[in-house]
Each structure stands twice: as C-alpha cells, then as structure tokens.
Automatic annotation (TrEMBL):
GO cellular component, one term: cytoplasm
Record localization: Cytoplasm
Protein known as: Two component transcriptional regulator, LuxR family
Sequence ranges assigned to domain HTH luxR-type in this UniProt record: 167-232
Gene Ontology MF term list: DNA binding
The organism's place on the tree of life at top rank: Bacteria
Organism phylogeny: Bacteria, Bacillati, Bacillota, Bacilli, Bacillales
SMART domains: HTH_LUXR, REC
CDD domains (alphabetical): LuxR_C_like, REC_NarL-like
Response regulatory domain sequence ranges: 8-126
Gene3D superfamilies in alphabetical order: 3.40.50.2300
Pfam families reported for this sequence: GerE (PF00196), Response_reg (PF00072)
A GO BP entry: regulation of DNA-templated transcription
InterPro entries in the cross-refs: CheY-like_superfamily (IPR011006), NreC/VraR/RcsB-like_REC (IPR058245), Sig_transdc_resp-reg_C-effctor (IPR016032), Sig_transdc_resp-reg_receiver (IPR001789), Tscrpt_reg_LuxR_C (IPR000792), WalR-like (IPR039420)
Length: 237
C-alpha cells in the first residue's frame, strides 16, 4: 500500500510554549508534519516561511501584538493561492471572523479547542475543505439569522439565500441519532460535548458525523449546518 503524503504545515505564533504544544499535538498524527515555526514578528516573516517550505497549511495566530493579521492573510492568499490559511484566535466575534474569511482564510479556530478538533481541522483544510470552530459557527449562524429577519434589509437577506422553512427532521435520509448529532452540531457543541449529551463515545460521535456529511454530500460541519438550516432540518435554539 502506498503511504499517504503528509500534510505539511507552517505554524505562526508568538508564544514558544504554545507553538511547541501545538506541534506535539499535530505530530501525534502520522499524516501531519510541522515543517517550520515562526514568531509572527511581522507579516513578511510568514510570507518568507511559506516561500521557503511550501506548506499545505499555514496555522496563523492573529492575536500577536503589533502583527497586522489582515495584511498577512491578504499577502499569503494572494501570493500563494494553493496554500490554505487556518486562523487561530481567542476572539469569536462574527464580524471579524467574516472579514478574515472574506480575505481568503480557509478556516477559523479558537484556542480553547480540543486536541482532536485541531487535528481534524488541519486535515479538512489541508484536503481542500473549510473548517470553523463550532462556537464560531453558532455565532455566524445567529448573525445570519438576525440579518435575514431584518425587514428593512430584505435585499441583503435574499443575497444570502435565506428563507423561512418549516422545521422537520430529515428522517428520510438519516437515523434519529444522526438527526440528534446534526442538531447539536448546530447548537455549537464539540464532539466531546455531543458525546456527553447523548451518552455515547467521541468515536461514535465522529462516526455519526461522518455519515451525516456523507448523506448530505458536504465536506464539513459548517456546510452541513448551513444547508440544514436552509432545509429546515434543525432549529436555532
């Protein structure tokens, strides 16, 4: 059997201990390799590291004091369109998240994430998908819902493709347990939290999540939640 090529990363963060911890977590998975690390002292450092190491994913901390994250993301995406930028931050404000995604970032993670969530995010982004932290996804959906309900801005809501639909579980394609997992994903639950709520293991949650994505023909949790809201398969609670 031919070995699968590793996903190569460049990690940019101003805290050495954090970088070392993240590197150790990522390299517990044999499919991931941290090729280089940077302190994020300026925007050009990230660009130079990407040019030198040609990674698949740049894991970028945007909270470094004095670091122009907007300019860094713009430069990385413009100069290296094949490289995926995955944001690390402590902020979950939907306006900022939306802004960096518009700049071209492929994912957005909060620093309070679990280790397996980080690994999953890197793999999804490195494979060409998108990944947003469950809590951030929930905030974005709430903002999306507020925008859609503003009577004075119907044109903006229609641009998002939003319309009210009758709530109904998708039992025609999913099991009841998969429907439960989909709803909890919409609520912003992590795999661990879903497992605790449904009294099942994280491995079982991951299996259900995989089946949900497969049945919906989507690449990641964010797409699953957005499409489910449009179809009326889940509720905002």
């Amino acid at each position: 059997m031919v070995a699968r090529e590793k996903i190569k990363l460049v990690l940019i963060d101003d805290h050495q201990l954090f970088r070392e911890g993240v590197k150790q977590i990522l390299e517990t998975d044999h499919e991931l390799e941290v090729a280089a690390e940077g302190k994020g002292e300026d925007e050009e450092e990230a660009t130079q590291l990407v040019f030198q190491y040609q990674p698949d994913v740049v894991l970028l901390n945007v909270d470094t004091p004095g670091f122009n994250s907007v300019e860094a993301i713009r430069n990385l995406v413009t100069r290296n369109p094949e490289v995926k930028v995955l944001i690390l931050s402590i902020h979950d404000d939907e306006s900022y998240v939306t802004h960096v995604l518009k700049l071209g970032a492929a994912g957005y993670m909060l620093k309070d994430m679990e280790a397996d969530t980080l690994i999953e995010a890197v793999k999804v982004v490195g494979s060409g998908g998108a990944y947003i932290h469950p809590k951030v996804t929930y905030n974005l959906i709430q903002a999306y819902r507020r925008l859609a309900s503003e009577d004075e801005e119907p044109s903006r809501a229609s641009e998002l493709g939003y319309k009210e639909v009758e709530y109904r579980k998708p039992l025609h394609i999913m099991t009841r347990r998969e429907c439960d997992v989909l709803q909890l994903m919409t609520d912003g639950y992590s795999n661990r939290m879903i497992g605790e709520d449904l009294v099942i293991s994280e491995k079982t949650v991951k299996n259900h999540t995989y089946k949900v994505l497969q049945k919906m023909n989507v690449n990641d949790r964010t797409q699953a939640v957005v499409e489910s809201l449009k179809k009326g398969w889940v509720k905002l609670r």
